[in-house]
Structure formats: C-alpha cells, structure tokens
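Protocol step 6 of 9: fold each sequence in the batch and record its structure tokens directly after the sequence line. For illustration, a two-sequence batch is reproduced in full.

Sequence one:
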Amino acid sequence: MLSAYINEKDIRTGTVISVVARSVAPGEILALEYPNKSRVSGKVISASHNELEMEINSEAWRLRPHAPSDSTIHNDLSDKDASFWTVQAKL
C-alpha cells in the first residue's frame, strides 16, 4: 500500500495531497493520512502525469499537478519519490 498525505482536515477543491511513490497505477490503494494522523484509504481510478482520479471515502475526485505560487509544477512521477496534487473537482 502506498502512502499519501492530505494537507487539510477534509478533502475539497484546493486541498493538496502528496503521494509518496515513484508512480501510481489504476487499481492501486493508497493510505491517506490527515494532519491529525487519522487515515483513510483511497483507490486510484486513473493516473497520468497531468491528472489523477481517485476514490476516497466512496467519492471520486479529480486531481491535477500542484503548482505553488512560484509556478513550478512539482510533479514528475517518473523520477521522483513524491508528487503533489491539488484537488480540482468532485466527480
């Protein structure tokens, strides 16, 4: 099971999720940890370098690469140990 970290107390548009993995594939399960250390599991629905869809708590979410204020995209799953995603929409 892969690990991921949610930067807020709930998941909504704008929430940043960091995924600790070189890559993810459809069907993989992630252990998502909130700041208060509580955990939920999420299942990858689809994944590419510019979009990630996950089911978390029986709800589907679309995530895009996180671009902080310096406009750098911190997302290259091919050669990094972690990637950062921003929740874009509930599906």
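Sequence two, same batch, same settings:
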Amino acid sequence: MRERLIRMNLWDEGDRRNPAQDMNCAWSVLARLGAPYRFGGRTPDGRVEFLVLDLADGRVVASGCGTTSEEAMCRAALAARGVQETNAVRH
C-alpha cells in the first residue's frame, strides 16, 4: 500500500515509515487530500471504515475499510484521490 500512496502523491518516497501501520502517518495521508474526513464506524464484519467527504456539501465521496484504522484511512485516501483525479479530467 505504501507504494500506491507514493504513486498517488499521498506519501513521500523518502519517508520510510508505512502509513498503513502508523497512526500519525495515516492522519498525514488523509490530511494531504485537502478534504474533510471522518471515522465511519465498523462494518458488519468488524472492519473499520473511514469516510472522505465533499468539501462543499458534506456528502460521502469515498470510503475505505480495513482491519485497522490505519489501513482504513489509507484505503479511504486512495479511493478519494481516484475520485479527485476522475473529477479533474471531467472539468
């Protein structure tokens, strides 16, 4: 996952920490999006979910689930970056 975060400009290649295993790093990854985000709760199978929200209207634009909060945060950030890139191409 670390390599995907680097490719999507959500993590610095020179930083050897793994955001999917470090809470402070996972917060940094989400913060780089420039969009609001929040804890979404637990899924019925017990996984953690994080949500990324639209800045204008607060609707959910992406989510990510994982066995840990860090993993869910990184997955949400990757999903949101994909949405951001798709929207940029449309405009």
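Proceed to step 7 once all outputs are recorded. Observation for sequence two: The two ends are 29 Å apart (CA to CA).
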